[in-house]
């Protein structure tokens, strides 16, 4: 539990740092920074799903078409990211490794780990 909180804190800190960097860049760019800051910040948001404690976190992630989604395996065992409809399959993701794919089609895809069938999650593409 403590470990999970630490990871969440790290992710939040990274997000804040990216936002601050984007805001700083927009400020340096001058007068039109107010309108350009928001798109710049949102485009830097990482679409990352952490695999930890035999769970995908978050269990449901919503992204936009064309965005890249990355799964990071922080467990000590390998997992997979396997779509029930066959639209994607990571194969084995080793402990400490990651895998990414592009969100190509709108809709919801449920996925699971073929090694641990109780590990399930969903990806929503808009
Ligand atoms: Cu697994």
CATH topology of the largest domain: Immunoglobulin-like
CATH top level label of the largest domain: Mainly Beta
Instruction: State Rg.
Output: 17 Å
Strand content: 25-35%
Number of domains: 2
Class by SSE composition: alpha/beta
Q: What's the helical proportion of residues? A: 25-40%
How many beta-strand elements? 8
Distance between the termini: 32 Å
Number of helices: 2
> What is the H/E order?
HHEEEEEEEE
Full CATH superfamily name of the largest domain:
Cupredoxins -  blue copper proteins
CATH architecture of the largest domain: Sandwich
Report on the structure:
By secondary structure, the protein is α/β, with parallel strands linked by helices. The chain folds into two domains: 45 residues; 80 residues, Cupredoxins -  blue copper proteins (Immunoglobulin-like). 31% of the residues lie in helices and 30% in strands. The longest helix is centred in the N-terminal third of the chain and has 28 residues. The two termini are 32 Å apart. The structure holds copper (II) ion. The site of copper (II) ion (CU) has 5 residues, from loops.
Outline:
The protein is 31% helix and 30% strand. The protein has helices at residues 2-29, 33-43; strands spanning 47-52, 55-57, 60-63, 68-73, 82-83, 98-102, 107-112, 120-125.
């Amino acid at each position: 539990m403590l470990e999970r909180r630490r990871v969440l804190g790290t992710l939040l800190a990274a997000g804040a740092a990216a936002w601050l960097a984007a805001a700083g860049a927009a400020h340096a760019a001058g007068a039109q920074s107010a309108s350009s800051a928001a798109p710049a910040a949102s485009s830097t948001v990482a679409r990352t799903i952490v695999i930890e404690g035999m769970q995908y976190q978050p269990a449901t992630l919503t992204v936009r078409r064309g965005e890249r989604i990355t799964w990071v395996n922080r467990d000590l065992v390998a997992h997979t990211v396997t779509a029930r409809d066959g639209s994607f399959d990571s194969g084995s993701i080793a402990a400490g490794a990651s895998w990414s794919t592009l969100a190509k089609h709108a809709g919801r895809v449920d996925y699971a780990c073929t090694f641990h069938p109780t590990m399930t999650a969903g990806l929503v593409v808009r």
